[in-house]
Amino acid sequence: MRALLFDVFGTCVDWRTSMMREAERFGLPPQLAVAWRDEYQPQLETVRSGQRPWVNLDVLHEIGLNRVLRAMDLTLPKADRVELVRGWHRLDPWPDVVAGLTRLKETFIIAPCSNGHIAQSVNLAKFAKLPWDAILGAEIAHAYKPDPRVYRESVYALGLEPDEVCMVAAHRDDLRAAAAVGLQTAFVERFGEDPGPPFDADFVAHDFEELLR
Amino acid sequence: MRALLFDVFGTCVDWRTSMMREAERFGLPPQLAVAWRDEYQPQLETVRSGQRPWVNLDVLHEIGLNRVLRAMDLTLPKADRVELVRGWHRLDPWPDVVAGLTRLKETFIIAPCSNGHIAQSVNLAKFAKLPWDAILGAEIAHAYKPDPRVYRESVYALGLEPDEVCMVAAHRDDLRAAAAVGLQTAFVERFGEDPGPPFDADFVAHDFEELLR
């Protein structure tokens, strides 16, 4: 195994607590964060289905936010909406992540394989001190997970074969899609993630420290 | 200024000394390194001119190596040629680079904007301990510098405007092309680099420590 690819939202960072804080910063109810995240898969699906050309996650997050604000009968000025969308660029890492990634980086190439775009991934890495070797994922493939192109393009960009790479995620549907194109898989349990059906990952861990072992 | 983009070959790493060492490792005369580098621009030009579709630098390096070996009346088994091409993934940094980049990273997003592809850039960063925030450059644009698309796509990937980004290079033609699309520019003098005509960069430094100041 030469490289580890990581899901980010939920797996590396606690989007729920962070975005509840962001909502409150703009005088909005914290439960907006969860309602907003519920718009995530439907908005990605507009791209996966071909209904919309590939646009980055800031665009899809803003569309989702507008829908949630309307549904909750709330309003927010455009400048604040833009700034709130940028909240997804400043999410707190789970407590084990920075130390775990730093250690894993000594042995493996580590990179996000996220549905976040390059700018979001870089800004988040600066904020949360995630020591990535490269930024891979949706933007280089112009597709959204679990579209197999996202995993394939990420592996190809590293000049590796799929079985030399392990996908790490807190969502089994992400791992199932990665396994289908030949990657190894590691499931990490995270609070409130993974509503999906069971999947036998090659590795299972409670956090990145255990993953290391 | 929010981000610094770096040329790599010659600016961050001493390809000359490193590739002379690689040539000797395969029983070849060290001057092969310089003759091989002389094939660099002509091979890039086959892509820039549209004569060849975009292929990565390993492919162009192997074509150049085969030409140089023939011209010097030398032979090398295929497996050794592949391994020698991989020599461009393990080049020594100039002495000021790792400390300089580490300090610059505290304030700016730092990324290569090189003609090297993602796999080469990642492997080189692992070897030379270059602490990049992201890997940008030729592969994300499917073009080769000084094609303006390489600078534009790298700036766009960061979600920034061109004047928020500074291109750092030891070659004035690289800086001239970056300036033409609106980037700020910093010239760093390196031994044996920059045979090009003069260009007034926004910043001039002898090394990355001076650049920091």
TrEMBL record, chains A, B:
Q: Which domain of life is it from?
A: Bacteria
Tell me a Gene Ontology molecular-function term this record carries.
Answer: hydrolase activity, acting on acid halide bonds, in C-halide compounds
> Which UniProt key words apply to this protein?
Hydrolase
The cross-references to Gene3D superfamilies, in alphabetical order and at most eight, read: HAD superfamily/HAD-like (3.40.50.1000), Putative phosphatase, domain 2 (1.10.150.240)
Which regions form coiled coils?
none
Instruction: Tell me which Pfam families the record gives.
Output: Hydrolase
Q: Which PANTHER family match?
A: HALOACID DEHALOGENASE, TYPE II (AFU_ORTHOLOGUE AFUA_2G07750)-RELATED (PTHR43316:SF3), HYDROLASE, HALOACID DELAHOGENASE-RELATED (PTHR43316)
Protein family membership: Belongs to the HAD-like hydrolase superfamily. S-2-haloalkanoic acid dehalogenase family.
**What is the name of this protein?**
Haloacid dehalogenase type II
| The organism of origin for this protein | Solirubrobacter ginsenosidimutans
